[in-house]
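ESCALATION

Customer reports they have been waiting on this structure for their group meeting. Please prioritize. Original submission:
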Amino acid sequence: MSARRVAAATLLAASLALATPLLAATTTTVDLPAKLAPEIARAKTGRVAVLIPSTIRADVAASHLYASGGATAHGYDIQLAYAPACNDATACFFAEFQSGPQTLLAGTAVALAHAITGTYAPIRCGASCGPAAVQWRERGVLYSVQYVLGGRASMTALADSAIDAGAR
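Update from on-call: job pushed to the front of the queue and completed.
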């Protein structure tokens, strides 16, 4: 092997060794009721119970996530984003918690807490990618969670956490 290839392989190995702990260090658990406290308080002025998961896994520190939202005409809409004033833009979207009139998902039925059946839709990509989502009806209200890091198991766990926690 040439000296140039040996140097490149050594540099690549060193880069991977340095990057792995950095990637692992950026995975954190966010306390959603604490992070979203002002938004939950605003959402509680609405017409429906506010169901928010207890925690969510993030690929950045909680201080690097920006919350917005509150009550809507028929429910609530609370967002978490990688940038302030994201307004659901794909480039900065992280997660969203909603209730009220929404478009029903086309997806796979999933069993949720309290014998509730929900619908799961995986991350969808076209011109841009949409987050994974899970929806369920509880007491006649349609709830949904969308999350950019969500697979089926994590989306089901988020919905179960929101259902188990009850109204915030």
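Sent to customer with the following note: Residues 3-165 form one domain.
Escalation resolved.
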